[in-house]
Structure formats: C-alpha cells, structure tokens
Specification:
With 1118 residues, the chain is α/β, with parallel strands linked by helices. The protein is built from 42 helices and 33 strands. About 3% of the residues have low confidence.
Length: 1118
C-alpha cells in the first residue's frame, strides 16, 4: 500500500503540500497588511473593527430591509397562501445574506488577521495599553481586573487571571498559525502538532466571524478547557469591543446563560451546547430560549468530539411509573453461579488440553483448547498458555476447521458450555445447557418464551366464554411481557459479568459506576450504558441500581454539529480519520506544517511473547531513563495496568506519579510536574490529549521527554496523541512502544505470521524482536479495528438520520408554535391535511354518513357538500371545499372567542392592571380544559386577538410535546425489534426506515387531528370573569440530562446475534416479529409493499419470497 501511495504522490502530488501551497498567497497578503497596521495608533487599531462591522452592515442592508418589509406584510395580511410564500421568500433572503457576508469576510480576511496579530504583538510589548474609553471599556472595568479607567481613558494590562492561573501575555502568531487560521475560516479541519498553539490559532477566524454579530462558538471536550481558554483569550477580543463568555460558568436556562449565547464569542463544552439545544426545544415561552441560530463553530479536539463521541446520544429524561422496579438483584445470584460453574469446568478442561498437547495429541488437545477459548477467552492462564511456542497457531488452525461450512461443526465444541463468548465481536450467547441450568428444577419454563400464536390458538380451541377467553389471553400476554423483560435482564447481567471489567471499562467511585473513556482514560461523568446494561453493572458491583427513565428529548452529537452553517475543527490527530470526517461532515483535513522541524526519535515497536516479560523490560528502561535525568511519560490502556506498573516502580524505589481515571482530579498538578528531570509519570491515555508538558533546559540537554507506550491502542490516533507529548516546538525526545502477543489487539487482530515467526526463531523468555515489518503489521491490525469502527458509526448514522429528519419536522413545528408568527400557516396546513385524510378514507369506502360524522367530530361543522356531490366530485375537489369551509368556520369562531373575552380583559386591564402583567384564561373543549397564559396589555391593545394566538400556541405545544415523547419511546422499541429481521434475511435498516415512516406519519396525522379538534371545540367558560387570575411562574420539570454510552460491543458485531438469543424487552417490541396469522401456502396470493417507493403488488407467495428475502419488499398483513 505504501508503494501505491508513493506512486500516486509522484503523479498527483502530496495533498498536504498542495493545501498549504494554495493558502500561501493569503499568508503573503496578511504580511503585507502587517507593515501598514504597525503604524496605526492604539485607537486607530481598535477603529479597524468598527470599520469592518460597518462594511458588513452595508453589504447586508438591502436584504435586511427587504426582510423587515416582508415580515411587516406577513403580520398584516390575512391571506394564508400569501403568508406561506412570504416566509419561503424570507428564508431564501436569509441564505442570500449569509452568502454575501461570507464573500465579504473572505475579502476582509488578510486585513482582519493582521489586526489580530498586531494586537497580540502590542500586548507582548506593552505592560499597559492606554486608549480612549468606550462604553464597552467602562462596562468591563467594573468586572475585569485588567481594564481600569483614568478619566476618559481606559488602561488595558497585559497580565490577567486565566481560570485561576496568572498569566502575562507572551504569544504572537507564527506564519504556520496563520495557515491554520485560514483553514479554520474556510470550514476545514486543521491538524496541528502538540505545542503549536491551537488555542491561539483559533483567535484569528473567531475574530473575523464574530464581526457579523451572528455568534461564534468554540467547543471544548471539558469545562476546565472551556473556562481556561475563554479567560485566557478574552482580552484580545474585548480590546476590539467583542464580548466573550463561557456557558459552563452559568446554570442551564438562566438569564446569564442566555447572555453568554448572545455574546459575540461563546466558549463551552460539547455536552452543554447539545443539552441547551434540547432544553430550548422543551421550552414553553420564547423568553426561555437561550441559543441563537447555529452560525459558526470551531471544535477543539475535533476527532474526539466528531468521531469518538459522535454516536453518543445526549438525552434529557424524566421519571416513569414503576421505573425503580427491576429483577437485577434477584437474578444476579443465578448469573454469578453460572459464571463460576463455567469457569471451574473450563479450568479443568484447560489442564487436560495442556496435557494432551504436551503428549502430542494436537487434535483432541486443540478441540479442548478451542472450547476453553470460546468459554473464558480473557482467562489469564489461557492467555499465558497461548503465548507458548506453536499453541496460538494450533488454536487458529482448530478454529478454522470448526468454522468451515458456516460453523457447521462448532456446536460440537460448544456442547458442554453454558454460554459462548465471541471475543472478537464482544458478543455473548446462552446455550440450551445454560438456560436449563438457570431455570432449575422448580420451574423449567422460567426463561422459556411462550409461542404467542400457538398459545392463542390453544385458548381459542377450548370453546370458552368471551370473558374467560379474554382473561386467559391477558394472562398469556402478561407472562410474555414478564419473561421478555426477564430474559433481557439476564442477558445484560451476563454481559456485565463476562465482558465488562472493573478498572478497565469502568470504575466504582462514591458508590457509583462511572464509565471510563476508552480513548482518553478520563471519567465520563453523567454517561450511562444503554438498554439496562449500566443497571446490570450496578447490580454486579453491589451499588444502588438507578431507576429507569423515559426519554423526553435526544440528539446525537454528530447531528447537533451538522446544524451549524459553517463547522470546522482542530486537533493533533485527524488524518487517520480523514475519510470519515469528509463522508459524514464534509470536512476536509489540512495538515499544518510545524513551526520548527520535529526531531523526536520514534523507534520501532519492541515485541515480547508475554506481558510479564514486556512489563519487566518497561521497568528496566524507565529506571535507566530516570537515572539519566530524563522525564518519562508511561502510557497505559487501563487503570489496572497503571497501578501494576506503579507497584513495580515502588519496589525499585523509583519516585513516580500515577494519573488515571480514579485520580483525574489531580491531573493539572501531575502534568505540571511531568517535565521535571527524572520525573516518572504513569498515565492512562488521558495524558495523550489536551496536555502540554513543558521541559526545562536541563531536560532538553539530557535528551528531552521519553514516551513509553506499554501497549498499542486499537486506534492509531491515540498512539499518535501519546507520541505527540514529546518533541513540541523542536524539543528533543523519543517514543517507544512495548508490545506482547498477549495484548488484546495482538490476540484478536494481530497477524498470524508474527506468532509463527517468533516460534520459528525459537525465542526464549525475555528475548525481543524489533523490526519495521512488525510495526507495520501492528498498524495493519489497528486499521482493521478502525475500519470496523467506521462501519459501525456509519451504520448508526443511517439509523440516526431517520430520527433526525423526524426531529427537524417536530422541532420546526414547535418553534413556529412557540413564536406564533408562522403558526397560522401551520394550522392552515393541519386543517388541509385533516380535510384530505377525512375525504380520502371516506371517499374510498363511499361512506358519506361517516364523512359527515368526522367533520362534526373534528371541525364541529356540518358537511359543505351534499351526498350527491360527495359521489360526483373528485377527492381533491371535496378536500378543497372542506378545507375552505373549515378554515372560514375556524376564523369566525376565533373572532367570536376574542369578542367574548375582550370585555373581561378590558375590565381587568382598566381596574387591576397595576396588579397583573400576565393573566391566565381557561379554555375547554367540553372534556379537557387548558389554562392559557397571555400578556394583559397586549391582549387589551389587540382587542383580545393576542389571547386567541396564545390559545393556539398553548394547544399546539401541549399536544406536540405529548405525542413526541410517546413517539420517542416507540422508536426506541422499534430499533430493538427490527434487529430480528436479519433472521428472515432482511436488512434491519430498511425495515426500520419503512416502519419508522409509518409511525411518524401516524403521529403527525394524530397531532393534526388532536390540535384541530381542540381548537374547533375550544370555548371560554361562561364564568370567565371570575376565573381570570395572575399567571404564576412555570414550575420546572423534573428532568435529568445524561449521555448514554452505546457500547462498541453492541454495534460492533451485528446486534442481531444478541437479539436472536431471546433478548426481547417488551411485548410491544416483539409483536412485530411473532407470527400471529395462519401459515401462508406457497400458492396463496399475498400483497407486498416496496420499502422505499410504497408500491403494492399482488402475487403468489412463492414468487414473493425472493423479493422479501432481498429486503426491498415487505409482506402486507390483511
């Protein structure tokens, strides 16, 4: 592959060099402006910002005036069709305004970047800068210590506090940083090495894009960085009159957080930006909204946020009835028993396998070895045995034999196992023997799912009374639901006991199970594994099992960030994920050159046979390096290894610091000491991201920072991040990875040839091999994992895109209802859609009586056409007549309500307006009632019309929210159930798309009908005068925010395998796949529907089977 890449470079050229070459003319332009700007006074330099802003305002003026004019027309016209056209035109003008502004920003870029660079120079060269005080300076002087007033002058200091750390400004942009700034402004990803100043680079495009007044967001991976960077960089922007804030300083839904979003530049963490978006879409008043439209975002550590965290859903949830009821604690002893029984049995089998192999019986020995591997693959004794000469090769040979012919012989291996672990796919499956063991003798059917169709047929065959029959069916369904939940609980407990290790995937702190980020090793506070797995781990660790919650709002980070008009990012490692970043986000990666050449010595990997040999070699090397005066950073993949190495160093009396997920709060202090001579720091991969280890002159002379990697990570990016801690800004340094054949990556994906080669060479204990071919083989193994992970993320994105399209429709409707300006257009569309549905269904059935009934039921009006006209006119003509009659009827009704309410409002306003600002007016449809909050003064001045608008808003919001919560639950259930379609040779994704469309269509139709029905029937009670009172502040909903960890194990293999092992959760989930109709004969005629086009076909079942099998068509039930 490397040869092919070299050939391509000869003909096509190096992409990174071409990217940089294309930006060099802009860099030269920036430099030409520097000379001119250097001559400006401080006040003239600040005046440049005002000049830029006025140019932007001028170029947008005509479009903004046109938008204002159209908005005014929309507010006055009663013509609904014209209103809709106006709003479409306004949206087009907004897009045009953005395009024109972007073109101007591109023209301003060289001069604007030169202004920022000159500002940094002046802060470096002047302890204080005195300028004529502006209103903004005067405001800042009251809250910021670095701005003081002397008469009409403002004095800016070049020293300030950055989130608790005193700093004196000492940075000026290099030429390579200008290239990085250009890449970020163009909406690309700038890959910059450690110590190259990504935080400073971001100031260039942030200043330029903040000039528009539309908002710039800088997104960080944790709140420490958000707070530090916002305080560190703020004076550079504030000097030019641009406001800066950080959302992580303020409480959600607070006035302070809203103010932070209204600042020109806003810093914050990815989670909080996403949660605020969800909270805004649960708001009940425009005043509760905090975010503005998503304009421009720079994502720091972009690969971590848009790749590693991309598929993690942010969830706002609330309590559900009986959410604290579960069977985890009751079933835990059974799982504990089965795990211990299998482990005890297989340890004996392993001993037999060792004897057989030693005696030369490789056939039976290999068979038993494979059985052990499929039952306890992570057993330390097994892993050690596999590192012996020829053993791993024997296992692979035996496995290949039993896997041939689609695993035909594998049941022989699994016959004595209680459950089987597929370690490569991280899946687990209970065997029949395991189910029998768990069920016990008392209740053999404890975990056996009833065959619904068969059992119902038995009940119906008994000839019972309808009441008794219904009772037995209800009992059957209840039993089915209980067992579904029980099997799901059992499956998750089994996973918790066999696939998830404490101090590796998670830690227990403060009596809580906390997930450890596999990429960084940091604690992911607030995140939980999905689908009951977290509760299972809580039960396993004997901590409190948290209650189940219901989703109120959810979005994945990848869909949140795709909402920005312009998105870009920066990181030290993005090239390895460039394909994914382009395919999903259309973000191009630009490699930015380093300011000084990297002279770090990156050595080839050292490969040992066992972990014990590897760790001993690591400790020897660390001891030597520390004695030589070089600081050492040891990177580990989990907490357990970091603690083991710490103990080994303590035995050698080597002073050291340990930094892992348990000690993450000490991170800043430990990193600050990590560059001292002879200092040894053991860290999980968290040390690889966002930490800058600065070296003393003494250390640089001794050879710089030494990086020791104790294991290759699944992802090359993490290894590159660790290496990148050394060699910053031309400093010397070295990096060395130690690998053993027992490491997870090598066991699962390492080349078989490495094991064979080490066997042939006859390596003795402690001996090591080192060669570029070995390092390349390891990188190939990493690429396999990366490709697999990309496939998983891409597949999940396709599922999430379906949800996202629905979310956009619902949230757009909700937004229109919240503000009310476009609500009347939405209501007109609802009336038309409902008219069309009523007409279509009844015209098709030729049922005029039901047609009349539904018009009265939903529109509270009689039919505008006669029975004869109903038979003669087309569906479209009838729909049109119904719509116009219904809409006219609605307008009359709302005017009548306004007229009825106005005298009461007038009386309250004229007699009690000093007491009331907002009032509550009750409405009822005869069954339900709703309290409508309206502004008293506005309602009085509009003769009661504002009350009607608020009535429409309240009804729409209440019904949309209720329907959306129910729909989210159904979508969760659907996603679980469609995985079973794989057993029918269908693509679960296609079924999911089809079924979710049907669900969403049904939800929208129901929302339309419910909203219309209430609005048409809604009346003011006769005693309104006595029931009007002052509106109270709305009570905050009791909701939780969380990030749900969709663990790699569930998606990495196909979820279908797990689903096939009876992991259904609830009755509703499994109803979609249980046969509840008679068996279809080969020659019976059936109706099938195309999943994508919706086309129907009638044909014989034997002809339909091939089409259904492909997954493009589905069978339509009678």
């Amino acid at each position: 592959m490397s040869i092919l890449n070299a050939i391509i470079k000869v003909f096509v050229g190096d992409k990174s060099k071409q990217d940089v070459k294309a930006m060099m003319p802009l860099v030269e332009k920036i430099k030409s402006f520097e000379v001119e700007i250097e001559l400006l006074t401080h006040d003239e330099l600040r005046a440049k910002t005002t000049d830029f802003k006025s140019k932007i305002a001028d170029v947008r003026k005509d479009i903004e005036d046109e938008i204002d004019k159209l908005n005014e027309e929309a507010n006055t016209t009663e013509d609904i069709d014209r209103k809709e056209d106006i709003y479409i035109e306004i949206d087009k003008l907004k897009d045009e305004s953005y395009t024109i502004t972007e073109t101007l920003l591109n023209d301003l870029l060289p001069e604007a970047f030169a202004v920022v660079k000159e500002t940094t120079k002046r802060f470096v060269n002047n302890p204080t800068i005195t300028v004529i005080a502006s209103t903004f300076d005067r405001e800042l002087s009251g809250t910021k210590s670095y701005v003081s007033l002397e008469g009409d002058k403002a004095v800016w200091s070049n020293s300030w506090d950055a989130a608790g750390k005193p700093i004196t400004w000492d940075m000026v942009h290099y030429d390579v940083q200008l290239i990085g700034g250009i890449a970020l402004h163009e909406g690309k990803i700038a890959e910059m090495q450690t110590g190259e100043g990504k935080t400073l680079v971001a100031t260039l495009p942030m200043y330029l894009n903040a000039l528009t007044g539309k908002g710039v967001h800088l997104v960080t991976v944790n709140d420490y960085l958000a707070k530090r960077d916002s305080a560190w960089m703020a004076p550079i922007f504030e000097f030019h009159g641009l406001s800066v804030d950080c959302i992580d300083y303020h409480q959600p839904n607070s006035a302070e957080r809203k103010k932070a979003y209204n600042a020109d530049i806003t810093y914050g963490t990815n989670n909080e930006f996403g949660f605020d978006y969800l909270r805004d879409n649960m708001a009940h008043s425009p005043d509760d909204l905090v975010q503005r439209p998503h304009n421009y975002s720079i994502v720091d550590e972009v690969d971590s946020v848009l790749v590693d965290d991309a598929r993690t859903p942010l969830i706002i949830s609330g309590p559900v009835p009986d959410g604290d009821k579960h069977e985890f604690d009751e079933l835990k002893p059974k799982i504990n028993d089965i795990v211990n029984v299998q482990r005890k049995y297989l340890i004996g089998v392993l001993a037999e396998a060792k004897k057989l192999i030693a005696s030369g019986d490789t056939k039976e020995g290999g068979f038993k070895l494979l059985r052990v591997y499929r039952g306890i693959p992570k057993n330390k004794a097994l892993i050690k045995f596999l590192s012996e000469e020829g053993v791993k090769h024997l296992l692979q040979k035996t496995e290949n034999f039993y896997m041939q012919d689609n695993n035909r012989e594998m049941p022989k291996v699994d016959a004595e196992l209680y459950y089987v672990i597929e370690e490569k796919n991280n899946q687990i499956e209970l065997s029949d023997k395991g189910i029998e063991f768990l069920s016990g003798n008392d209740d053999p059917d404890f975990f056996i799912m009833p065959e619904i169709g068969l059992e119902i047929a038995k009940i119906e065959a008994k000839g019972l009374t309808p009441e008794k029959e219904a009772e037995l069916k209800e009992e059957l369904f209840r039993d089915f639901g209980v067992k579904s939940e029980r099997i799901h609980t059992l499956s998750q407990l089994l996973k918790a006991y066999t696939l998830f290790e404490k101090d590796v995937e998670y830690v227990v702190m403060e009596n809580k199970v906390m997930i450890v980020d596999e990429q960084t090793g940091r604690i992911m506070d607030g995140r939980r594994y999905s689908d009951g797995l977290h509760q299972a781990i809580e039960a396993k660790e004997n901590v409190k099992v948290e209650a189940v919650t219901q989703t109120f709002a959810t979005i994945t980070l990848q869909n949140y960030f795709r909402m920005y008009r312009k998105l870009c990012g920066m990181t030290g490692t993005a090239v390895t994920e460039a394909g994914e970043l382009w395919e999903i986000y259309k973000l191009d990666v630009v490699e930015i050159p380093t300011n000084r050449p990297i002279i770090r010595d990156d050595r080839e990997d050292l490969v040992y046979k066992t972990k014990r040999e590897k760790y001993n070699a690591v400790i020897d090397e660390v001891t030597q390096l520390s004695n030589a005066g070089r600081p050492v950073l040891i990177g580990t993949t989990n907490v357990e290894i970091s603690e083991l190495l710490g103990k080994m160093l303590s035995i050698r009396k080597v002073p050291h610091n340990v930094l892992n997920a348990k000690l993450h709060k000490k991170e800043a202090n430990i990193v600050a000491e990590a560059g001292q001579p002879g200092q040894v720091t053991i860290a999980t991969n968290m040390a690889g991201r966002g930490t800058d280890i600065k070296l003393t002159k003494e250390v640089i002379t001794a050879g710089g920072l030494a990086i020791i990697g104790t294991e290759r990570h699944d992802s090359r990016r993490v290894d590159r991040q660790l290496r990148g801690r050394a060699g910053r800004q031309g400093d010397p340094g070295s990096s060395q990875f130690y690998v053993s054949l027992e490491d997870n990556l090598m066991r699962l994906f390492g080349s078989e040839r490495i094991a064979k080669m080490m066997d042939r060479m006859g390596l003795k204990e402690g001996e090591v091999i080192q060669h570029s071919m070995i390092s390349k083989s390891i990188e190939r193994a990493q690429k396999k994992v990366e490709e697999n992970n990309f496939g998983v993320r891409k597949r999940l994105l396709e599922y999430d895109d379906v949800m996202n399209a629905q979310r956009e429709v619902v949230y757009r409707r909700r937004y229109n209802a919240l503000f009310g300006d476009r609500l009347r257009v939405d209501l007109a569309n609802m009336i038309y859609d409902t008219s069309e549905i009523i007409t279509e269904t009844n015209k098709e059935a030729n049922d005029y009586k039901n047609f009349e009934f539904e018009l009265i039921r939903y529109f509270s009006m009689s039919s505008p056409i006669t029975e004869n006209e109903f038979g003669e006119l087309s569906t479209q003509e009838i729909s049109g007549k119904v719509y116009h009659a219904a809409f006219d009827h609605y307008k009359e009704k709302m005017e009548r309500n306004a007229d009825l309410a106005f005298p009461v409002i007038k009386n309250v306003y004229e007699t009690q307006r000093d007491k009331f600002k907002r009032i509550v007016v009750p409405f009822t449809d005869g069954v339900k009632s709703i309290q409508v909050v309206t502004d008293l003064e506005t309602a009085y001045k509009t003769n009661g019309k504002q009350l009607i608008t608020d009535f429409e808003k309240n009804i729409s919001l209440a019904i949309i929210d209720d329907a959306w919560k129910t729909h989210l639950r159904k979508m969760d259930e659907l996603k679980q159930s469609v995985q079973l379609a794989v057993h029918e040779q269908k693509d679960p994704l296609l079924i999911y798309k089809f079924e979710s469309f049907e669900l969403f269509k049904a939800m929208i139709d129901q929302v339309n009908k419910d909203v219309i029905s209430f609005l048409f029937k809604g009346e003011l009670p006769q005693e309104t005068a006595n029931t009007i009172h002052e509106a109270q502040a709305r009570r905050k909903d009791n909701v939780n925010t969380s990030k749900e960890e969709i663990q790699n194990i569930d998606e990495r293999a196909a979820e279908s395998r797990e689903a096939g092992a009876n992991t259904q959760r609830q009755q509703q989930v499994v109803e979609t796949i249980v046969r509840e109709r008679p068996k279809i004969g080969r020659n019976d005629r059936v109706v099938i529907k195309h999943v994508m086009s919706g086309e129907n076909k009638t044909l014989k079942y034997k002809q339909a089977v091939p089409l259904i099998t492909k997954g493009d068509w589905v069978l339509v039930e009678d």
